[in-house]
Amino acid sequence: MRNLFRKIPTTAVPIYLPEVLRAVIKASDQDAVDHFEKRLAVWLGVSEVVLVNKGTTALYLILKALKRLHPHRDEVIYPDYTVPTLKLAFDQLELKTRVCDISRTTFNMDPRSLSEEITGKTLAVLPVHMFGFPMALDEVFNIAGEDIAVIEDACQAPGARINGEFVGAIAPSSIFSLCKGKNFSTYSGGFAAFNDIELAGFVRAERDKLPEAKSGLKMVVLITLFALAMRPGVYGPLYPFIKRFKSEEVHQHFDAVKFTSIQAALGDILLDKLEMINAQRRTNGLYLYEKLKDCGHILIPEIIDGADPVFNHFPVVFLNENDLKRAQSRLWEKGIDTARMYMRPNHHIYDLGYPSDAFPDSILIAKGLITLPSHPYMNQRDLGIISDIILNP
Ligand SMILES: Cc1ncc(COP(=O)(O)O)c(C=O)c1O
């Protein structure tokens, strides 16, 4: 019989309690963080990885290093439609935020718009592989040339490839997030990955100066609750409680601290099954992609040539607001939760000095986007319900 209380969360990572227990035991090893960094570097095929408490902290440390190397450059360009809290890292370093449009075809950075934002003061550009859909970087590298750093944001795309290469392993430096909404999550956390050894050395030295994170015991409790709450049979009945912790507010502050041993031990365990998790996401994502790709009333991102996405979320943009509202409420009635990720483009959230109607594709996407779940806790029936409702909202 169908469990009437079962609800599919927007995002989930299959973490089992015996894995949490194993992580607790392994965390007592002195070098859990060091060991996980080395394994991540081998897995990605990069020279070095430096773990921290957030993807934002990883970005902050990379930019701090770049700023020191190029003191006369003080502008950073990122896509207008992406996680707005990245700006916190720029602000902390007194770097000026510039944005460029994304493409309504790929939902990723539009290189033409990027080239219009470049100035003699540009320190770095941040192409983001949104929703786990890899973007081609060749044009970005051409635009950036020798003097401007390209930092890949692979936070939503661990394990995604383009032309056979892992995203986040292509540019001289990149960032990943291990926070709650990601394919590969240790509740919170992040890392910087490097092909540039000099930059890595600086970031490692700065990371070593960061304060330790607070009690590991609290983290064990949070990871355990997180592992349980994402299960559809638990998420449904506990939803009224879980809802209180969901927020669409943009954070105003971030703390840069070290990564914990317990999270490193858990990450090490999850890395063994990341390929399997991503394979399930790919199956679910490609099913939805095939069903939804030729629909007049919605937009979905194109999978570009050579790309192997990992579907961190499955984004759908409704061209009509009533369709969006109806689809969200009908999906919820059928036990499928959805999210509105970033309801406004960055230049509407912050005063960045651009006219309100600048970057039309970012505005269009922010206005009509919902994210559908694509994680391994879904079954064929859930996928069928989703595609039916999106096709006929
Ligand atoms: C694309 C992208 N970049 C950066 C981040 C920041 O990561 P964190 O929340 O770990 O600081 C996120 C997290 O939501 C993200 O989705």
Count of beta strands: 13
Structure ligands: pyridoxal-5'-phosphate
| Main sheet: strand order | 1-9-8-5-4-2-3
Can you identify the CATH class of the domain at 17-208?
A: Alpha Beta
Point out poorly predicted stretches.
Answer: none
CATH architecture of the domain at 17-208: 3-Layer(aba) Sandwich
Main structural class? alpha/beta
> Averaging pLDDT over every residue, what do you get?
95
Radius of gyration, Cα only, in angstroms? 20 Å
SSE pattern? HHEHEHEHEHEEEEEHHHHEEEHHHEH
Name the helicity range. Answer: 40-55%
Total number of helices: 14
Characterize the overall form.
globular
**Name of the CATH homologous superfamily of the domain at 17-208:** Type I PLP-dependent aspartate aminotransferase-like (Major domain)
Any idea of the CATH topology of the domain at 17-208? Aspartate Aminotransferase, domain 2
